[in-house]
Amino acid sequence: MSTKQLPESYSVADLIRPVVTPGVTSIILIQNGLGIEAPLISAFPGSTVITGVSMIGSRTVGDNGIVHVGTERLILGPHFHGGLGRETQLQRAREFVAAYQAGGCGSCSLEEDMGRSRWQKVLWNGTFNTLCALMGMDVGELQTSGGRDTMLLPMMWELVAIAKADGHDLPAELVQKLAYGLPDDCPYRPSMLLDMEQGRPMEIEVILGNPLKKAKLYGVDAPKCQAVYELLKLAQWKNEQRALGRTASKSTGKIDGSDLL
């Protein structure tokens, strides 16, 4: 099943419940976001919940075309919980990694500390994805406009501080690698930007909302992340209104700026 992580729209646990056999089925989440495993562990305490962080450059073309740029890299590992023994969960993750590798993927590796891996992915998704969507920019435009210094890097450092409070000390070298790893003419358009442009719901809550909940829990200030989150919520509301045909003003008159002075 292919879905985005939109907990405000639907429950992944409810969608997959008919095909989950307690104690037998392993659940694999190759999706964006932080904290996405919690509802599945709660709903299926007898199942191994394996999480995947995927680095893959792809986009749709036309109705049925997929353009894949670069080599896929997938990191998989269990979200350990008390419903099963640790070794059982780890072994099931090993088995799935082996099966995935046998299918001829680019790169698939096992990681026991998936919390850290998810935070590393959030450094990208919570900054490039969100800012490009909000500003209608591709990656190169965000970097060369000055946004890398004024918004991208400060947001990354805020997320690093939240991750550290959450028990995951991310290296400064990772921030530099992500912020400067792509050329300044990079035309890549992140998935959240495409969702914004096409009026689809965006994964705001799992990509930025959940990290901000942790920031509040630990007392970590993240003003730029909070501002971008709130602005994205407004943009999403506008998209929803447009989809419902409610974007026209309810007022019969037209007001310009001078009338308000």
Structure summarized in a few sentences:
The protein is of the alpha/beta class and about 260 residues long. It has helices at about 10-15, 40-45, 85-100, 115-135, 140-145, 145-165, 170-180, 190-195, 205-220, 225-245; strands at about 25-30, 50-60, 65-80, 110.
Topology:
Blueprint: H1 12-16, E1 27-30, H2 38-43, E2 49-61, E3 65-78, H3 86-102, E4 108-110, H4 114-135, H5 139-144, H6 147-165, H7 172-180, H8 191-197, H9 204-218, H10 223-243
Parallel strand pairs: 1-2, 3-4
Antiparallel strand pairs: 2-3
Helix pairs in contact: 4-6, 4-8, 4-9, 4-10, 6-9, 9-10
Question: What distinguishing features does this structure have?
Answer:
alpha/beta; Rossmann fold; N-(1-d-carboxylethyl)-l-norvaline Dehydrogenase, domain 2; four-stranded mixed beta sheet; 10 helices; 4 strands; globular
